[in-house]
Amino acid sequence: MLRIAIQKSGRLFEDSIALLRDAGIAFGNSPNRLRSQASNFPLEIIYLRDDDIPEYVEGGVVDAGIVGENVVLEKRKTVRVVDRLGFGKCRLSIALSKGTPYRSVQDLNRLRIATTYRHVLADFLAANGIQADVHEVSGAVELAPSLGLADAIFDIVGTGSTLLANGLYEVETVLHSEALLVADPALTREKQEVLDRLLFRIQANRNAKNHRYILLNAPNEKLSEIARLLPGMKSPTVLPLATEGWSSLHSVVQEDVFWEVLEQLKAAGAQGILVAPIERMIL
Ligand code: PRT
Ligand code: ZN
C-alpha cells in the first residue's frame, strides 16, 4: 500500500485528481476530504495543505506527494523527485514598482524585498552577491510595495495580471516551477513497486497526449523519403495496398510538430493522410 498526499484544495487539486483517475485509479470523493482509499490499486490518498507535503514525505508520514517545485525548494526537505507532471506551471520572480528603474541584478542591493519564499530568494541573492533586506510576509505579498513595507517583492507569477493590477513589473525570473511527483527516498521495496506501477501509467498517458497516430498512403517509390519524416517509435509500419505500387504507412508523430510534418508529408507525395489521437503509449 502506497500513501500519496495531494493538495486538499487549491490550484493543484483538480489536476492531481485527474492524473490519478486517468491512471485508472478508482476512488470515491472523500466526504470530509481527509483520505480516500483506491478500490482497484494499492493506493491511499491523503489530502493536505501543499505547504505540509514535503515535510510529511520526508518524515515518512506519507510515501509520496504531488506538490509545486516552488514549495519543495522552499521547504528544504529531503525528498526524491520522481517525475515532473507538467501542470501547475508558474514562475517565481522579483518585481519592482513601475516607477523604479532596473538595469541589472545589482540594482537589488539594499532593497527591501517582501516574500513568502525567503529560502529560494536567499539562494538567488547569495548566488548573485546581493545584499538585500528580506521581509518575510505570510500573504498578500503584492501589496507590500504600495503599503510602503517593501521596495520589491519576490512571488509566484502565473499570467502576470496580479503584478500588473498592483503596479508592479517583473525584473528577474528566478525559477520556473511545475507540479512534481516526489517520494520518500527510503521506500520499502513493496512501496517502490507500487510507485513504479503508478509512474508507468502516468508516463503512458503523457506519451499518448504528446503524440498522434498517423496513417497515410504513398506510392512505393516515395516510401523511403516519407519514412524518414516519420521515424515513429522504432520505424514506421509499411503494408501493401491492394492497388499495385502503393503502400500504407503507419507511425506516430509528436504533437508539437505534427502540422509541420503533415505539410512535409503532403509535399513528399503522401495521400489519404489520417491523424488520430492515441489513448495510451508505452515507449
Ligand atoms: O491551501 P494551500 O496552502 O494548500 O494552497 P495555497 O493557497 O498555498 O496554494 P495555491 O492553491 O494557490 O497554489 C498551489 C500551487 O500552484 C503553488 O504552490 C504553485 O506551485 C502553483 N501555481 C501555479 C500558482 C500559480 N500558478 C499562481 N498563479 N500558485 C499561485 N499563483 C498565484 C500568484 O501568486 C498570484 O497571486 O495566483 C495569483 C494569480 O497569478 P497571475 O500571475 O496569473 O495573476
Ligand atoms: Zn500553501
Protein model, in words:
With 283 residues, the protein is of the alpha/beta class. It folds into three domains: 2-87 and 178-207, D-Maltodextrin-Binding Protein, domain 2; 90-176, D-Maltodextrin-Binding Protein, domain 2 (3-Layer(aba) Sandwich); 211-276, 2-Layer Sandwich (Alpha-Beta Plaits), CATH 3.30.70. It contains eight helices and 15 strands. It has helices at 13-22, 53-58, 69-75, 118-127, 161-165, 189-209, 223-229, 258-267; strands spanning 2-7, 35-37, 43-48, 64-68, 80-84, 90-97, 112-115, 133-136, 152-157, 168-177, 179-183, 211-219, 237-240, 246-254, 271-277. The strands form three sheets. A six-stranded mixed β-sheet has the order 2-3-1-4-11-5. A five-stranded mixed β-sheet has the order 8-7-9-6-10. A hairpin with a 5-residue loop joins strand 2 and strand 3. The longest helix has 21 residues, at 189-209. It is globular and about 80 Å long. The two termini are 27 Å apart. Zinc ion binds at residues 49-51.
